[in-house]
Amino acid sequence: MPVFVNGVPRYEIKPPGTSGDMGEATKSISADAARVFCFIEDERHLTAHALLTDVRTRLGVWQEAQHATESKSATRRRSKGIGFGLPHYKAGKKVDAAKKAAAEGEMKQVQELLQSKEKALDILEVCVHAIYRCGYLSQDDLLTHSFV
After folding, report:
1. What are phi and psi of 37, to 5 degrees?
2. What is the pLDDT of residues 88-132, one digit of tens each?
3. Total domain count, the chain
């Protein structure tokens, strides 16, 4: 329940949630996607943009791998029975189905999160473009990333 002072709701200042976070990518893409929005909330737009770029890159790599796997499966199905009656595909390592399903679920969750908050990401792109358009900011300056 908000506290009112003279009929106006009191403004509460929220401490930054990402003050100790340098914005480096972790192993978990879903955690990184959530951190992007924490950086946006704390107005650390350049760090958020760098992490978002990394998340989108990893998502693209996963989608390409999925597409390549689907094409290989189709090729394997077509090549069965040719030659000596044996399938002509390389014997690879068996991937744990549970790990694969968990990774697929995580990637789909990240895709849904990015699609649901597309408007915030569009605003982020505009802010980052405006910051770099200033001209005196360096894209690799660590101090700039921590304050902007």
Report:
1. -75, -25
2. 455 455 557 778 888 888 999 999 999 999 999 999 999 888 887
3. 1
Asked whether the beta carbons of 55 and 36 are under 8 A apart, the reply is yes
Q: Nearest 10 degrees: CA dihedral of 5, 9, 10, 12?
A: 170
On whether residue 115 sits in a domain, the answer given is yes
Q: How far apart are CA 13 and CA 10, in angstroms?
A: 10
Q: What's the average model confidence in pLDDT over 10-37?
A: 86
Does a structural domain hold residue 128? Answer: yes
Under 8 Å between Cβ of 30 and 10: no
Structure tokens at 94: 């068996």
- For residues 19 and 123, is the Cβ–Cβ distance under 8 A? no
The predicted-structure confidence for 41-96, as pLDDT tens digits, reads as follows: 988 898 999 999 999 999 999 888 888 877 766 555 555 544 444 444 554 555 57
Residue 5 parent element (H or E): strand 4-5
- Alpha-carbon Rg for the chain in angstroms: 23
User: Does any domain span residue 62?
Assistant: no
Domain assignment of residue 122, given as a range? 31-37+45-50+103-134
The predicted model scores a pTM of: 0.70
